[in-house]
């Protein structure tokens, strides 16, 4: 693979590396600054989203909309406790039964249409919405890994990932089920499998990112990409030091990464908690440029309606926006201080962000406003991790023991 080091628009504060990988069948280069921020031997070693000590989901199990919760309820004096019932007629978001134990958080959601939606989470959970109901479609009932990514290029090309050695592909939901194939490990022989937190797919060639894993002595990687072309699945690794929490691509020529590169114990940079990198094509390569985020908290997710309209969210209610040119993120106020975990939108004036303790925010093109959900009463508001929709009137949010649906009512 070709390698190239080039940085523009930022001060270089550490070694910069670039390696080739693929997105949408096109090669591109990835480069990052700094040294490794974190590593993990296995997916179970990560505690970013806890794996609840609950039994595996069983057929007929209820979701968080009707159970008291893993802890049996909450103290009414706790401001995070839901004490006032809100009906689905009053709220913009309504819980939908998933038949997944409330002990298992759902951490990611993606789909190709309103009748083809996938959600994944802890305990090896993967479920599918066919327009009428959620149905369990576990890749391997014996696995208890937390799938943090579900993505695809269409109804016939779906991927879920927990770690660099736990990745599955399916050709979609057919005849009432989904057939999953476990693909070869993406971890190099010298390295340990590390958790995957983010993924994008285009043209059938997915790219995943997460905690750095060992490539060889003093060399770390934090992204993997399926090699383009027919034949058995094979992977290319990309060197990088930061933990990649979010990825979004306007096209194969324009890609954004967000994450954290601050852990000094691994040679990271303490000031680089809110790390972002923008890849743009120069000739036949993507050249990566660090972009000032004007934040000092970890960024968790990134999404855009176009290359000239990109959003990032993170801890402490942090919201950032970048327009055409991408030289610097601008600070955008939000009505929360909860950690934000996911973002998605249908247009520049219709963007949703979700986060901890039931936080749901909506951007209407001018301001961010809170949105109301009909959460189960006598339970703490659940942490929410993922959001995706087929359009402005069909949007899903997933989180701790719950799936919420927006169907076009009051935002």
Features:
four-stranded antiparallel beta sheet; mainly beta; globular; 2 domains; 0% helix; 411 residues; 30 strands
Quick structural overview:
With 411 residues, this protein is mainly β. It has strands spanning 16-23, 26-33, 93-95, 106-113, 116-121, 126-129, 134-136, 149-154, 157-163, 166-174, 177-182, 196-200, 207-216, 219-226, 235-239, 243-251, 254-260, 275-282, 285-290, 299-306, 309-314, 318-323, 330-331, 340-347, 350-355, 360-363, 368-370, 384-391, 394-399, 402-406. A four-stranded antiparallel β-sheet has the order 3-30-29-28, with no helix packed on it. The chain has a four-stranded antiparallel β-sheet with strand order 4-5-6-7, with no helix packed on it. The protein has a four-stranded antiparallel β-sheet with strand order 8-9-10-11, with no helix packed on it.
Structure description:
With 411 residues, this protein is mostly beta strands. The protein has two domains: 1-38 and 190-291, no CATH class; 59-122 and 293-411, no CATH class. 0% of the residues lie in helices and 46% in strands. It contains no helices and 30 strands. The chain has strands at residues 16-23, 26-33, 93-95, 106-113, 116-121, 126-129, 134-136, 149-154, 157-163, 166-174, 177-182, 196-200, 207-216, 219-226, 235-239, 243-251, 254-260, 275-282, 285-290, 299-306, 309-314, 318-323, 330-331, 340-347, 350-355, 360-363, 368-370, 384-391, 394-399, 402-406.
């Amino acid at each position: 693979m070709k390698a190239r080091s080039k940085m523009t628009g930022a001060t270089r504060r550490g070694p910069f590396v670039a390696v080739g990988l693929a997105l949408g069948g096109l090669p591109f280069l990835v480069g990052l600054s700094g040294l490794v921020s974190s590593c993990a031997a296995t997916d179970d070693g990560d505690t970013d989203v806890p794996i609840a000590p609950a039994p595996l989901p069983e057929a007929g199990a209820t979701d968080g909309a009707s159970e008291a919760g893993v802890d049996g309820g909450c103290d009414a004096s706790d401001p995070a406790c839901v004490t006032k019932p809100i009906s689905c007629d009053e709220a913009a978001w309504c819980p939908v039964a998933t038949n997944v134990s409330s002990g298992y958080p759902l951490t990611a959601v993606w789909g190709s249409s309103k009748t083809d939606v996938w959600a994944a989470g802890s305990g090896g959970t993967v479920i599918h919405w066919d327009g009428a109901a959620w149905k369990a479609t576990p890749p391997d009932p014996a696995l208890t890994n937390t799938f943090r990514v579900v993505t695809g290029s269409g109804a016939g090309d779906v991927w879920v990932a927990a770690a660099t050695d736990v990745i599955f592909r399916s050709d979609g939901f057919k005849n009432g089920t989904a057939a999953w194939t476990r693909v070869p490990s993406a971890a190099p022989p010298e390295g340990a499998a590390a958790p995957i937190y983010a993924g994008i797919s285009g043209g059938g060639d997915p790219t995943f990112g997460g905690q750095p894993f060992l490539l060889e002595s003093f060399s770390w990687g934090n992204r993997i990409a399926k090699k383009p072309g027919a034949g058995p699945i094979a992977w290319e690794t990309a060197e990088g030091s930061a933990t990649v929490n979010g990825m979004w691509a306007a096209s194969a020529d324009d890609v954004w990464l967000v994450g954290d590169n601050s852990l000094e114990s691994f040679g990271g940079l303490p000031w680089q908690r809110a790390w972002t990198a923008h890849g743009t094509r120069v000739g036949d390569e993507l050249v990566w440029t660090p972009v000032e985020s004007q934040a000092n908290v970890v960024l968790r997710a990134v999404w855009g309606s176009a290359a000239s309209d990109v959003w990032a969210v993170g801890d402490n209610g942090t919201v950032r926006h970048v327009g055409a040119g991408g030289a610097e993120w601008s600070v955008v106020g939000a009505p929360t201080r909860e950690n934000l975990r996911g973002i998605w939108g249908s247009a520049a004036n219709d963007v949703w962000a979700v986060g901890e303790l039931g936080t749901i925010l909506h951007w209407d093109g001018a301001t961010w406003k809170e949105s109301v959900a009909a959460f189960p009463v006598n339970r703490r508001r659940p942490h929410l991790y993922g959001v995706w929709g087929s359009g402005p009137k069909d949007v899903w949010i997933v989180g701790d023991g719950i799936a919420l649906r927006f169907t076009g009512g009051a935002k």
